[in-house]
Structure prediction request, 225 residues.
Amino acid sequence: MEETSNKVILFGTEASPFARRVIWALKLKGVDYDYVEEDLSNKSPALLHYNPIHKKVPVLVHAGKPVAESAVILEYIEETWPNRTPLLPKDPYERAVARFWIAYGDQKGHVFHGFLTCLEEGKEQAARDVLETFKIIQDEALGDKKFFGGNTLGLVDLCFGWLTSFEQVERVVGVRVLEPATLPRLHRWTRDFKEAPGIKENLPDMEAQLPELESLRKHLVSSKS
Ligand SMILES: N[C@@H](CCC(=O)N[C@@H](CS)C(=O)NCC(=O)O)C(=O)O
Prediction:
């Protein structure tokens, strides 16, 4: 029965930036879905069944069929519900540019991970590396536009949406990087993004995640040294 219905189910966690992108896309598109909050220390049989390769969230199940990997899920959502709040430009070249920046952000995951897990002596270098990446995102991807695609939100914004929680990461690490003085346009974008309809009502409660983020940093740092 479930296999043939058009039911949409999302497996995620509150703190996952990858799952959050998908939540925002579904909300902006007005797609009804059931949400399953996973415990990543005790993954459900359903998650392991639907994502046997990576065993990670998010997974979107539509009409009984699973789609994994957040960037792939976003494209699937855009192609399945193209007319409800388009999230990719119509022009093929502009679509290619959007895909380039989504891939760029994901390829730079190690820089952000390096910041979260830096040891005391590596803090300055880790902060410089993040700043350099943020500058590229600000100057080359965002430019003078309000959002990455222009005046309205798109998939690139959703993929960089986790930057709105970077302040909590900075607090846990003890260094500030994304500040108005150094990155004025990217900082302004984080404020506009947080205020945008569809996003504002669906932001993660990152203050509540602070203790978890603290212990994640401690765990990652201790397994490094
Ligand atoms: N490339 C994946 C990354 C997903 C990912 O790293 N998910 C994390 C949570 S933020 C996870 O499920 N981790 C569980 C694990 O690694 O076992 C995507 O874009 O969906």
